[in-house]
Known about the structure:
The structure holds two protein chains of two kinds.
Chain A: H1 2-10, H2 12-29, H3 34-39, H4 46-55, H5 62-74, H6 88-123, H7 128-141, H8 145-159, H9 182-189, H10 194-229, H11 232-239, H12 244-281, H13 287-296, H14 300-328, H15 330-334
Helix pairs in contact in A: 1-14, 2-14, 6-7, 6-10, 6-12, 7-10, 8-10, 8-12, 9-10, 10-12, 11-12, 12-13, 12-14, 13-14
Chain B: H1 18-26, H2 30-47, H3 49-52, H4 90-126, H5 128-143, H6 146-157, H7 161-188, H8 191-198, H9 203-211, H10 216-239, H11 251-256, H12 266-294
Amino acid sequence: MIQFFFRRFSHIFPAFIGVTLLTFSLIHLIPGDPVELRAGERGIDPARHAAMKAEMGLDKPLYVQYFNYIGNVLKGDLGKSFVTKKPVLEEFFTLFPATLELSLCAMIFAVIFGIPAGILAGVKRGTVFDHTVMGVSLTGYSMPIFWWGLLMILFFSVNLGWTPVSGRISAILWIDTDTGFMLIDALRSNEPGAFKSAVSHLILPSIVLGTIPLAVFARMTRSAMLEVLQEDYVRTAKAKGLSPRRVIFVHALRNAMIPVITVIGLQTGVLLAGAILTETIFAWPGVGKWILESIRRRDYPSIQGGILIISTFIIFVNLGVDLLYGVINPRIRHNS
Amino acid sequence: MMSETPIIAQDNAAPPHPLQEFWKYFSENKGAVIGLYFIICAIIVAVFANYLAPHNPFEQYRDALLQPPFWMDGGSSKFILGTDDVGRDIMSRLIHGARLSLFVGVIVVTISLAIGIILGVTSGYFGGLYEIAVMRLMDIILALPSLLLALAIVAILGPSLKNAILAIAIVVLPHYVRLTRASVIAEKSKDYVTASRVCGSGPFRMMFSVLLPNCMAPLIVQATLGFSTAILDAAALGFLGMGAQPPTPEWGAMLANSLQFIQRAWWVVTFPGLAILLTVLAFNLAGDGLRDALDPKMKR
């Protein structure tokens, strides 16, 4: 197990180096000169230009620049935003809880609806229920979520008036955001109605962001169930006279969940990408919206830093999924 | 006396033409057939957009701003699906948008399939350090969320439909490379390949004339599904203002500013998204059907 852990752990280094190479080259691939970009449209005199170039370390050979960049990244220095002049890392982590909260809620929504739907569809293969679940999930899988979000706002917020249109909490409430997780902060604030307001702001974005993962989970769970239900051990369990419930939930489901857990992990990337769209529609102040704004403002340190942190986060999530996979499935850990 | 055994039944049932056999399996899946018909309709609409569209997609009818669809009060049969905030006919824009979306799909799939096949076949065939380098690069691309990477590429190149197409082609590339490489490795050890090598085939012939045709089935499926990814991602980039730029009648870009009209004009929001959904769904349905029909493991 320890050997498996280290072997898998060593895989993250090439991925991390690749991602840093990508974000490093980002700043060099932009047409134009980084110094002039920073100076803006007013232009800059040659002496100051050279000084700034030296200050930014751009006068050194590329490989030296890369090693300086890696060194800074490992020290946690991702540079300062061109626009706000604040450290990128700080900006990112003040906004990250909002994205994490939204992604977690979306994931919970997708899991609690997608997996049971997939199990039932697999067990009742070929029935109307199965066809409905498959049809709905294929539609969900094909959904342009930015449009789905607009439709949800149109229906639930505009026509029915059930949920708010945007933001994380009602504007009239002013609560301390210590943790950055609005649900926790609202609970701790003891403000009447704060928690309810935070929840109502979360519902639509979570459903919208969770739609594609939900569809993927339902399809994946169904096919995993179908595969497992054909196994000999399931037939044996049935032959022993166990109740159908026990056969499905104990003998089949546990084994069917192995591929599903991997897919849940892999959806993290999808969620973070989807967050860019969802946060834009619902004016949700998270990192997705922030990265998009950085791209619009050509704030390259923020784009660079944001992409680097999110990709590193995903690399670690994938590592976690693989390790978990090894824990629950001995066949993986003992294979070379 | 020897009696000749009479030939009772001549085995004259020739094996069905491959296309016939394919259609037999494909048409078993009703969803796939519906998807295929929808795609054919979309292609016809895209090709004949100039004739089918009732209005010029760019023309602004200043006396008919935000006019509702014809079945609603205030709507007219002149603008069947209504008009947008500057008085352009939504249906004409959707029809021309079909052309754009299918064009994006064709270009993205062509670029990524061509480069993916070359990288995949060569890395599967030659192996070694080259293979490791290619596959690691693909792993890195896969480690990033596709939309984020596409946005990063557009951030470098600048927002336009052309750059969005390029960005999406890069983002989807790893799928084709991995698929091709995996099939090539699986085929490489088979007897017919060895036979061809013994006959003296050179590497180029081996890769593209012997191996590649036997690796096409999963690639065809992936390419069909690739259309849906390309259309969806291009629309998302257009929506974010990082793809097609206004006033281009691209479906995603048509939705970009629609949030502000959501209370007054639901039709501005609804129809472009419905067009995206149906087209993407059609390609996904057809892709699923193709997979079932082409995958030998699924054939009974």
